[in-house]
Amino acid sequence: MDANRVKQILSSSADIDVTYNGTSVWIDQLNEDGKTATVHLRGPLEERTQVDISELNEEV
Predict the structure, then answer these.
(1) Into which family does the record put it (predicted)?
(2) pTM for this one?
(3) Which one, of 11, 55, 14, lies nearest residue 29 by Cα?
(4) Could you give the percent of the chain with pLDDT greater than 70?
(5) Quick check: 17 and 1 in contact, CB under 8 A?
(6) Angle at the Cα of 36 (from 17 to 1), degrees rounded to 5?
(7) What is the Cα 23 distance to its own chain's centre?
(8) CA distances in angstroms from 28 to 1, 23, listed in the order given
(9) Which residue pairs, CB below 8 angstroms and at least 24 apart, start in 44-52?
(10) 3.40.50, 2.120.10, 1.10.490, 2.30.30: which CATH number matches 3-58?
């Protein structure tokens, strides 16, 4: 995924399914470097982690 698509997803009101290593995640923010994002798993756990946006996939 690229930075522009991450920004579009963040500004969208739609529920867009994004995965990281096959696991469904929410994108919390695009980090200042434009190459990483802060995400957390969908579900009850709120643990956040920074990932390379090239490893995020939009499920269609």
Answers:
(1) Belongs to the SspH family.
(2) 0.88
(3) 11
(4) 100
(5) no
(6) 45
(7) 11
(8) 15, 15
(9) 51/20
(10) 2.30.30
Q: Would you say residue 18 has pLDDT above 80? A: yes
- Across 6-45, b (16+ Cβ under 10 Å) vs e yields beebeeeeeeeebebeeeebbbeebeeeeebbebeeeeee
Contacts of 12 (CB under 8 A, 6+ apart): none
Give residue for tokens 């957390």.
40
Amino acid at 7: K
Task: Break the chain into its structural domains and give their ranges.
Answer: 3-58
Q: Which of 44, 49, 50, 59 is nearest to 9 (CA)?
A: 59
Q: What are the structure tokens assigned to 23, written together?
A: 């696991």
